[in-house]
Amino acid sequence: MKRFMNSAIFYEYYLWTFRQLTTLQSERNYTAIKLIGLTSPTKRLKDPDCIKVPSSPSLLHRSILMSPGKTQGTPLPYVSPRKLFTEASPTKSFERYSHLSSKEKSSLVLPYKYRTLAETFRAIDAVVSMMFNRNETIFFSKLKISVQQMSKKNLTETHLSQILTIYPTAFEFKQEKLRQGPGQAPKYELSIKPLLDKTNGDSCEEKSESSLMTPSIILERRRKMYDALLNLTKDHHQEFLKTLDPPMSLDKNKVTRWHPEFEVDSVPDIVPSLLPLPPNLEKFSTAKDVLNKARDIFMCNPRMASALEKNSSLPQAQYTTPAAASIPALTSALKGIPKSLLEKVRAKQAAKAASMLTRNPEAVKRRIEYSRLREIARIVRNTFIAEKKTVLPKSLLLDKLSSSYREILTPNDMTHHLDLLMESSPDWITTINNRGEIYLKILRELDLSVIHENIDKLINQI
């Protein structure tokens, strides 16, 4: 009996404790819900002391079970999505880097050896930028391995010497002393450091990025290298023009294409500059010093000494062109022709070549388009005669032109040429818009030779 009473008392005590805990938990939940502000959205927005609903279920569960006496953390400030998108708008980025795509494309082609050097410079600059941004000392041995893996071509010090000649402000070359053990002779290795032009950097960049090679700086350096190679090719082209008969004098900045007789790939190689040498090696300033040193080394071999003497006595090679070499043969072949007539023909050829070299690529393209209009006008007239009508749909006429013209042109190009024909001869072809469909009407009484004369006048005006 006593044992049963003890168990009943314990059971009542357990029920009383469970009721107390349940009441306390319900009060905490009610207080938390009131703090969250689920009663009214308007009140939640107006009340500054109201706590916002957490963004995740775990934070919501934590806020409900948290004691009301504990203070909540300060909520993060609200940022408008529109403000986030307007601060880094793609339009502003396009305007920021618009200078990279504003330069017009030129029809001038670089020689193969110059294009190869430009690709090598691009690979070198890419590897150097990665090492430089890591604050790593760039040695030629490490640079050579990385560049060869990237470009699949050999890299030698001659390439660096040519880059130093054509673009001297690109890199700084030094001989760095390597760490050696005690008793070992000092060793030096060539190190490369890019020279950054801070005036070309972006004005919107942060101060921490001013000492890094950003993509905009790499693109600007690549453009400078290409311009330097192009200017060097233009200089060789100017030398070639002086060797013609009669010689031509043009502004190299106005040249838009090379002379037909100018062999682009036969231009001389870029003269390599002298890279820094280690202090323990003997420096040679002239070719005579090199020959004297070689003579001292190979003095034991008389054949080698005589070969060096012959090489030192040879005259220096001069820049000659095929046109200059063929002048004596032309003079012997043109015997008997009056000199005044030859001078007139040569002057006419020189003027024609000068106009071809300085012609705008857009003008050349427009001239080619106008030259096609004569045949297109003939096909248009024959189509109207074959159909026995004076009005035809424009779509039908375009199909006939595409199937009858000798060249293969896209529908957009054929439409463009037909519009040019309508602009050149507005009295011959007129446009009629009927219920959303375009029709073309021609004047049959007008002779086709008049249309050809108008086209020829437009071609001569270019």
UniProtKB/TrEMBL annotation:
GO annotation terms (biological process): DNA replication checkpoint signaling; DNA replication preinitiation complex assembly; mitotic cell cycle; regulation of DNA-templated DNA replication initiation
InterPro entries, A to Z: Cdt1, Cdt1_C, Cdt1_C_WH_dom_sf, CDT1_Gemini-bd-like, WH_DNA-bd_sf
UniProt keywords, alphabetically: Cell cycle
Cell cycle keyword on record: yes
Domain CDT1 Geminin-binding: 110-277
Top-rank taxon: Eukaryota
Keyword Cell cycle: yes
A GO CC term assigned to this protein in UniProt: nucleus
UniProt-recorded Gene Ontology molecular function terms: DNA binding; DNA polymerase binding
Family membership: Belongs to the Cdt1 family.
Protein name, UniProt field: CDT1 Geminin-binding domain-containing protein
Organism: Nezara viridula
